[in-house]
Amino acid sequence: MGELVSQTEIVNIVQKGQAEGKTYAATNGCFDILHVGHVRYLKKTKSLADYSIVMLNSDSSVKLIKGDDRPINCEEDRAEILNALSSVDYVVLFEEKSPAKLLEAIKPDIYTKGADYTLETLPEREIVQKNNIKVEFIEFVQGKSTTNVINKCLK
């Protein structure tokens, strides 16, 4: 079972763990309505390291990206749901549109992103290269997205 931690706490946890030889894989997202695509993505992220970290967009961050009618679930609920998954060790919130600043502070061993990105299109490319963070691109599950779930509910 995972836990919600502050940005300061996660930086300290990772620094201490890495000094002891532990590895950390981090990813980010809104995870607004959890679906099987999210679950498989998070399981794959966890399989790459000793510990997994989800950098979770705060409510205000989700609104910036997805619009005023999102998120559907508040950040506290989204964090609690993620923390209930065995594949999530830590959840940390961030307010910005991008997790770049937090990613640079944490410096995980591995950073996972959806396979709709490449190293060339990755917004955090400069940070991962500068900090020697390995990037793993994870395939999406076809047809599984929060937007699809919302649209199906609206019909």
Describe the structure in your own words:
With 155 residues, the protein is an alpha/beta fold. The protein contains 7 helices and 6 strands. It has helices spanning 7-19, 36-47, 59-66, 75-83, 100-106, 125-130, 146-154; strands at 3-4, 24-29, 51-57, 90-94, 110-114, 134-138. The protein has a 6-stranded parallel β-sheet, sandwiched between helices. The chain is globular. The model has no long low-confidence stretch (mean pLDDT 93).
SSE topology:
Elements: E1 3-4, H1 7-19, E2 24-29, H2 36-47, E3 51-57, H3 59-66, H4 75-83, E4 90-94, H5 100-106, E5 110-114, H6 125-130, E6 134-138, H7 146-154
Parallel strand pairs: 1-4, 2-3, 2-5, 3-4, 5-6
Overview in brief:
This protein is an alpha/beta fold. It is built from 7 helices and 6 strands; from the N terminus they run E-H-E-H-E-H-H-E-H-E-H-E-H.
State the shape.
globular
What distance separates the N and C termini?
Answer: 35 Å
Query: How many helices does DSSP assign?
Result: 7
Radius of gyration: 15 Å
Spans where pLDDT lies below 50 across 5 or more residues = none
Average pLDDT figure: 93
Q: How many E-type strands?
A: 6
